[in-house]
C-alpha cells in the first residue's frame, strides 16, 4: 500500500480500512494539512459505534434518521464522539501524507501482509523516529467510525502474550517478527509512546497543540496564552473521551534472540488453508529456490489462490517463509546437505528431494485432503484445480514430459512428478503407497517409480496414447494435454520471444520451466521471459503499477 503511494503522482495519499465510514470533516482537515509548508504525516483513529441510527440516502449525498429526516454533519460527528468506543491501537487507523520532498521514514518497509497486524503501527513509529515530517494526530478533527458489526478480530494490533500468539495465524506471527527485525520499532517498545502534536479545531480555526512544548500554533505562528488555555482545555476534554487512543504498547511476546518457529502442525495448517473441496496446493522448496518459491506464491496471490502450504527443506527456507507470512512447516523427512547450485535433475540431491515429495503427498492424502503437487518452477496462467478435479475419483492426473510433438504422450518414464493432482480416495492412497515403497529402494529419483509402478515397466499398463491403469489398485493415470499443460521442451515455447503470449494463444493453464540444466539457467530463463512476480530486494511481490512512477 505504502509502496504504491510512492509510485503515484498524487499530491496526497490516504491509507484507510475499507470498513471505515468517513464524515465530512475529513475533507476540511485534509485541506488544512495540504496548505502546510512542511512535509507532513497525519494519523486518525476511528472508534467503533455499536448502534448507528442514521443512514445514507439520495445516492450517498444525505444522512437521514429513522424517520427519514435530514441530519446535519455536526450532529453526526457529535453522535460519534459521544457513543464511539475507543479500543486502543487498531489496524483501522487512518493515515495520510503529502507527496512532499522527504520520504515517510528512513528505514526499509518490511514485507508485511496488510491487514494482519502491525503494519500501520510500524509505519507510524518509523515516521516519528525518522523526524523527516511533521507527524500529528488528527483524531479530534476527522470524524470517522466503524460499525460494530464489521469489526474483525484480525485487525487487532495489540502485541500479545505467548498464549495469544499461538492462537494467531502464521501471518500475524510473520508480521510480528518483521516489525521487530526492521527499523527502530523493537527499540521503541519499552517506552510508552504517543503522538504529542495534535490537530484541533478551535473558534472555527485549525490549531496544532504541542503537548510537550505546551504551545498552540496556528499557521506556523504561536498564539497567545489566553487562546492556548481555551483550546488546550477543549482538547484535553476530548482527549479524555478518546482515552489517548494513539498509543504503542510495550508488551512484546517475542524477542530477537528467540528462534523463528510457528506453533502449527501440518494438520492444523491443512485445516485452515484447504479449500471447500478439501484440496491443497503443496509446494516444496529449499534455500536455493526461495526466490522462485516467492515468485510462484506472488502469482498465486494474483490469481486469488490461497489454499497452499509450503514444506521447507531447510531452516533457512523455514525462517524466510515465516517472515514472508507463509503457511510453512518442517518435519523429519527433509534430507540434509542440500546443494545450493547443484540440485537439478539427475543429481543425488535432486533424487533425495523428490522422494520427500511423494512421502508428503501420501501423508496428506491419508489425512483426508486431495493434493496438487506443483514444483515452484511451474508458471500458472490460471487456476488449474477446476480442470484437474473434473477427472473424478480414482484418477491421478499428471503432466507429460514427452517432448515429441506427435505420437503418444504416455511413453515409458514420461510422467512428470513435478505437477500432478492426487485425490484422497482408497485407490489413489494404495497406489501412492506402492510408489513410495518402490522409490525407497531405488537409486533413482521418485519420477521413474511413478511411471514404473503406475504404468508398468516399459509401459505395459498403458491404455491408448494418454492413460495408464494400475491393475492392483484400479487407479487410472491420465496424462494432461500438453497444449494446456506444456513441459519445458514442448514446441520450443521457452525459446519464443514472448513466451506468455505464445502460451496464451495455445490456451495454456501452466507451463513447466524444466528440460534445462542448472538452477541459474532456469532462473535466468524465467526472469528474462517476464513471467517473474517477485522483487527479492524489497521482498515484495511485483505489481503492475510499479512502472507508473
UniProtKB/TrEMBL annotation:
GO terms for molecular function: glycosyltransferase activity. Residues 305-525 form the Nucleotide-diphospho-sugar transferase domain. Pfam families: Nucleotid_trans. InterPro entries: Nucl-diP-sugar_transferase (IPR005069), RAY1-like (IPR044575). PANTHER family: BETA-ARABINOFURANOSYLTRANSFERASE RAY1. This is Nucleotide-diphospho-sugar transferase domain-containing protein. It comes from Acorus gramineus.
Amino acid at each position: 500500500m505504502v509502496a504504491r503511494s510512492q509510485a503515484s503522482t498524487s499530491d496526497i495519499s490516504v491509507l484507510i480500512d475499507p470498513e471505515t465510514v468517513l464524515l465530512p470533516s475529513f475533507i476540511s482537515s485534509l485541506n488544512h494539512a495540504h496548505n502546510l509548508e512542511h512535509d507532513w504525516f497525519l494519523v486518525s483513529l476511528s472508534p467503533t459505534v455499536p448502534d448507528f441510527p442514521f443512514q445514507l440516502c439520495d445516492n450517498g449525498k444525505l444522512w437521514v434518521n429513522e424517520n427519514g429526516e435530514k441530519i446535519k454533519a455536526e450532529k453526526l460527528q457529535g453522535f460519534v464522539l459521544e457513543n464511539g468506543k475507543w479500543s486502543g491501537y487498531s489496524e483501522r487507523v487512518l493515515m495520510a501524507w503529502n507527496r512532499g520532498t522527504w520520504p515517510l521514514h528512513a528505514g526499509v518497509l518490511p514485507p508485511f501482509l496488510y491487514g494482519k497486524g502491525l503494519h500501520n503501527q510500524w509505519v507510524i513509529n518509523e515516521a516519528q523516529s525518522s523526524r523527516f515530517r511533521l507527524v500529528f494526530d488528527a483524531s479530534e478533527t476527522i470524524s470517522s467510525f466503524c460499525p460494530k458489526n464489521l469489526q474483525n478480530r484480525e485487525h487487532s494490533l495489540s502485541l500479545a502474550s505467548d498464549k495469544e500468539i499461538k492462537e494467531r495465524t502464521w501471518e500475524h506471527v510473520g508480521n510480528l517478527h518483521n516489525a521487530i527485525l526492521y527499523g527502530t520499532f523493537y527499540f521503541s517498545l519499552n517506552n510508552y509512546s504517543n503522538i504529542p502534536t495534535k490537530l484541533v479545531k478551535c473558534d472555527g480555526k485549525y490549531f496544532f497543540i504541542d503537548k510537550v512544548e505546551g504551545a498552540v500554533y496556528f499557521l506556523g505562528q504561536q498564539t497567545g496564552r489566553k487562546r492556548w488555555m481555551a483550546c488546550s482545555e477543549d482538547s484535553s476534554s476530548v482527549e479524555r473521551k478518546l482515552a489517548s487512543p494513539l498509543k504503542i504498547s510495550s508488551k512484546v511476546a517475542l524477542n530477537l534472540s528467540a528462534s523463528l518457529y510457528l506453533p502449527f502442525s501440518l494438520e492444523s495448517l491443512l485445516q485452515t488453508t484447504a479449500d471447500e473441496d478439501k484440496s491443497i496446493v503443496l509446494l516444496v522448496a529449499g534455500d536455493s529456490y526461495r526466490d522462485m518459491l516467492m515468485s510462484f506464491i506472488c502469482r498465486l496471490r494474483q490469481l486469488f489462490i490461497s489454499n497452499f502450504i509450503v514444506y521447507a527443506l531447510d531452516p533457512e527456507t523455514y525462517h524466510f517463509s515465516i517472515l514472508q507470512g507463509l503457511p510453512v512447516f518442517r518435519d523429519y523427512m527433509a534430507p540434509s546437505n542440500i546443494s545450493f547450485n547443484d540440485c537439478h535433475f539427475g543429481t543425488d540431491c535432486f533424487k533425495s528431494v523428490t522422494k520427500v515429495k511423494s512421502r508428503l503427498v501420501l501423508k496428506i492424502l491419508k489425512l483426508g485432503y486431495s493434493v496438487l503437487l506443483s514444483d515452484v518452477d511451474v508458471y500458472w496462467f490460471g487456476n488449474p484445480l477446476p480442470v484437474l478435479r473434473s477427472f473424478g475419483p480414482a484418477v491421478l492426473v499428471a503432466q507429460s514430459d514427452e517432448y515429441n510433438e506427435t505420437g503418444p504422450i504416455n511413453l515409458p518414464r514420461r510422467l512428470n512428478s513435478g505437477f500432478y493432482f492426487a485425490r484422497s480416495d482408497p485407490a489413489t492412497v494404495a497406489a501412492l503407497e506402492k510408489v513410495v515403497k518402490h522409490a525407497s529402494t531405488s537409486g533413482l529419483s521418485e519420477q521413474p517409480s511413478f511411471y514404473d509402478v503406475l504404468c508398468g515397466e516399459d509401459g505395459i499398463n498403458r491404455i491408448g496414447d494418454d492413460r495408464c491403469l494400475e491393475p492392483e489398485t484400479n487407479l487410472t493415470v491420465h496424462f494432461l494435454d500438453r497444449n494446456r499443460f506444456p513441459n519445458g521442451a514442448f514446441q520450443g515455447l521457452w525459446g519464443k520471444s514472448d513466451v506468455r503470449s505464445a502460451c496464451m494463444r495455445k490456451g495454456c493453464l501452466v507451463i513447466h520451466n524444466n528440460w534445462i540444466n542448472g538452477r541459474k539457467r532456469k532462473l535466468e530463463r524465467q526472469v528474462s521471459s517476464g513471467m517473474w512476480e517477485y522483487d527479492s530486494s524489497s521482498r515484495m511481490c511485483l505489481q503492475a503499477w510499479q512502472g507508473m512512477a
